[in-house]
């Protein structure tokens, strides 16, 4: 397993960013944590850059940067985006697979409503709902070339609980991936550093040619957020294996 630190200092600035910190005065009923959040947003060069470039989230830069480095997004791919709101990853992926030129397909799912993105098929639903995997599979109408998950459950502030919640989401994403991914496909998911990831990573190493941990520069340095990128899917899909056994 290699840890791909994609260039530069993690949580650094995008090219061309200037220093001019904004401080938020304690206003009325604003809680201290909200004040800090607002201050961080106002001073975050990626937030500013995302606004300038018309990206819906600073997360867009994470996908852009990971793909610049590992080149897993390709023209004409069929992709699933789990936890897609507000749509930054969909925007980047759409450009890179040529969606506006009629190439490829993206289906995204989120608990939250997402404003339409040209060509992207959007579903508002809990991915953990029993019917979600079947609905996504039906919309895909065939194998996927990549499954991406940036899903993050609301944090409780309790580190261990938060880690277990994100692992549960990632495990469900892996299970779904086994049902839909085409041979050679990729899986990209958000994880957080912590003990429980080891088993998940071992599972992925069995089924993919290459498994990497990636911390893009746009991922805040003070966060334990980490992505796992698995490429070269080599396991037979559950559906196909079942068919083989029956034959
Ligand atoms: C960090 S945001 C994703 C940002 C997105 N990649 C972008 O570029 O705009 C995480 C998303 O995961 C979604 N999410 C968390 N749990 C989910 C679940 N069980 N089903 C569907 N979406 C979920 C949240 O609603 C949230 O919008």
From TrEMBL:
Gene3D superfamilies: Vaccinia Virus protein VP39. Its EC number is 2.1.1.166. The keyword Cell membrane does not apply. It catalyses: uridine(2552) in 23S rRNA + S-adenosyl-L-methionine = 2'-O-methyluridine(2552) in 23S rRNA + S-adenosyl-L-homocysteine + H(+). It is found in: Cytoplasm. Coiled coil: none annotated. The keyword S-adenosyl-L-methionine applies. Its main location: cytoplasm. The active site is at residue 190. It holds the Pfam family FtsJ. Residues 55-233 form the Ribosomal RNA methyltransferase FtsJ domain. Keywords: Cytoplasm, Methyltransferase, rRNA processing, S-adenosyl-L-methionine, Transferase. S-adenosyl-L-methionine binds at residues 87, 89, 110, 126, 150. Specifically methylates the uridine in position 2552 of 23S rRNA at the 2'-O position of the ribose in the fully assembled 50S ribosomal subunit. Belongs to the class I-like SAM-binding methyltransferase superfamily. RNA methyltransferase RlmE family. This is Ribosomal RNA large subunit methyltransferase E. It comes from Bosea robiniae. The gene is rlmE.
